[in-house]
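Sample entry (95 residues):
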Amino acid sequence: MASYFEARCNKCGEEFTISSGHGFYSYKIKCEDCGNVKSIKTNKRTYEVSFNDFTEDEIGVCECGGKFSIEAKDRCPKCKSLDIKIDEGSVYSID
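Predicted structure, serialized as tokens:
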């Protein structure tokens, strides 16, 4: 199940939505350099697989040249700053 939160960049003021979690059959990873999000489809439910189960070809490289990771922090989509405020009270979930 994925959860979505409203967020605001403390550097440029951009308001945006971020997500947490994975889909039933897709695994969400983010670029460590720019924050782009990529979903990797799997034929197993995501609780049955881990990031290490995917090949380098499946993970790929971000269009910015950065590395995808499950550890990457959320970034502002406009200025790429890590200095963001997440409104934990604005959560909504999708099955």
